[in-house]
Amino acid sequence: EYSCEYGSLKFYALCGVGGVLSCGLTHTAVVPLDLVKCRMQVDPQKYKSIFNGFSVTVNEDGVRGLAKGWAPTFIGYSMQGLCKFGFYEVFKILYGNMLGEENAYMWRTSLYLAASASAEFFADIALAPMEAAKVRIQTQPGYANTLRQAVPKMFAEEGIWAFYKGVAPLWMR
User: Fold this and answer.
1) pLDDT score for 136
2) Which of 134, 142, 128 is nearest to 171 (CA)?
3) CA distance 66 to 85
4) How far apart are the first and last CA of the chain?
5) What is the mean pLDDT of residues 130-135?
6) What is the pTM of this model?
7) Helices 108-139 and 70-99: angle between axes, nearest 10 degrees
8) Residue-averaged pLDDT of the chain
9) CATH code for the domain of 98
10) Which domain holds residue 142?
């Protein structure tokens, strides 16, 4: 009757795949807009508006320049989606079982909020390294053009901390 049993490994895997598709693909699709937004935040004198930012980027880097940071965006937000959608269901069932059926129903809104916050905690840990690399690629000219260039350079300069400096702001967001 159902494609899989609620709470089964297949159920969690399907939720995770849904997260990969919904977060990874959508965030990757808007990389050009995100790139210009990040550059406007870092250098508002050079990137005065969205349209000016697109124009400056295309003039300096070509149309392909608008795709800078696509790989860490896809990987990072796919990992975030996997954790967000998959762990939400894990925590929802876990917390529901801890409360008992009647209390889980009575406190369902709080249960859903707690499950969501718990899932987001881990999802942001999964996202942070790729988000850090993406921001370096997009906003520091000459630093790195690809994920393969950025990751070893960041690690050599700052160690593992380079990838997690932004996790607290992600949690606060």
Assistant:
1) 95
2) 128
3) 29
4) 40
5) 96
6) 0.90
7) 160
8) 96
9) 1.50.40.10
10) 7-170
